[in-house]
Design brief:
This protein is α/β, with parallel strands linked by helices. The chain folds into two domains: 151 residues, P-loop containing nucleotide triphosphate hydrolases (Rossmann fold, 3-Layer(aba) Sandwich), CATH 3.40.50.300; 91 residues, Magnesium chelatase subunit I, C-Terminal domain (Helicase, Ruva Protein, domain 3). Helix content is 44%, strand content 16%. It is built from 14 helices and eleven strands. The strands form four sheets. The protein has a five-stranded parallel sheet with strand order 2-5-8-1-9. It has a two-stranded antiparallel sheet with strand order 3-4. A hairpin with a 2-residue loop joins strand 6 and strand 7. The longest helix has 17 residues.
Length: 300
């Protein structure tokens, strides 16, 4: 089902099929995606590509240090003729919202996304406004070593179902990028592979992918290990456990399976857990070493 879509995606973002599949799984699982990488690595292109492939209304918000929450959610303006305040929706009212360079904004502005991401609604002046369905936030984040960035708090990181890193392309792929057509021009010719209605149907079908009791035990073992490990200040929350299950179901669905297998959980585990774990100051483990710790857990 997804083979033609992935083939099309590969013409735009070459050599990153794994990351593209993770992004699609995140969308199917009704989560939100955080992409962390250097500028110019294709983060914005990936967001625009997903909007095109699934026929989603697309909105891009460029985060800056002087941005205010109203620039995201909207503002109430007094209408003299009607003698009342009327709400003017902001760019958050879209199906796929790209929060570009989210960590260039202050914590107050970053928090404007919290209610939208968790409840699929926003509240303004005591009134609640529902957001579109499907609703998918893709946030891009520059490495914290770069100037002018504000780290995302743990509470906000936990709202992202997944975090992925695109990374540099290999030499052969980069040669194709350098000598090929402009990716922005290619994007204009992309036709939707699925309709919005088909996407909503698939999001419902995800929940029907079977998960055995043994795999539920395995997920609980992962959660318990993170909470009692000597390497982490805080462990994974129940929300992280649910994220693991939903993402594994979506990964199995993408690969045309009606049940989750251990390899599905292992495939999505780094994208689910690494941005949620807080490593103790006296530990110097890199991300691969951390994943090796989890991989030592017995697999059913």
């Amino acid at each position: 089902m997804f083979t033609p879509l992935l083939q099309t995606a590969n013409t735009i973002i070459s050599g990153k099929e794994e990351q593209i599949k993770l992004a699609i799984a995140c969308l199917l699982a009704k989560g939100h995606l955080l992409i962390e990488d250097l500028p110019g690595m294709g983060k914005t292109t990936l967001a625009h590509l997903l909007a095109k492939l699934f026929g989603l209304e697309y909105s891009r918000i460029q985060f800056t240090s002087d941005m205010l929450p109203a620039d995201i959610i909207g503002i109430s303006i007094f209408d003299r003729n009607a003698t009342e305040f009327r709400f003017h929706p902001g760019p958050i009212f879209s199906q796929l919202v790209l929060a570009d360079e989210i960590n260039r904004a202050t914590a107050k502005t970053q928090s404007a996304l919290l209610e939208a991401m968790e409840e699929q609604q926003i509240t303004m002046d005591g009134e609640t406004y529902p957001l579109d369905s499907p609703f998918f936030v893709i946030a891009t984040q520059n490495p914290q070593t770069q100037t002018g960035t504000f780290p995302l708090p743990e509470s906000q990181l936990d709202r992202f179902l997944m975090r992925i890193v695109l990374g540099y392309p290999d030499r052969q792929t980069e040669r194709g990028i350098l000598g090929g057509s402009d990716r922005r021009e290619l994007l204009q010719n992309i036709s939707p592979a699925f309709s919005t209605e088909q996407l909503l149907t698939m999001q419902k079908q995800i929940r029907k992918v079977h998960i055995s009791s043994a795999l539920l035990d395995y997920v609980q073992d992962i959660l318990q290990f993170s909470r009692h490990s000597q390497y982490f200040l805080t462990g994974l929350s129940p929300r992280a456990g649910l994220a693991l299950l939903r993402a594994a179901q979506a990964w199995a669905f993408i690969h045309s399976r009606e049940m989750v297998i251990p390899d599905d959980i292992k495939a999505i585990l780094p994208a689910i857990v690494l941005h949620r774990l807080v490593i103790k100051d006296d530990q110097s483990h890199n991300e691969q070493q951390i994943m090796n710790l989890f991989n030592e857990l017995p697999i059913p």
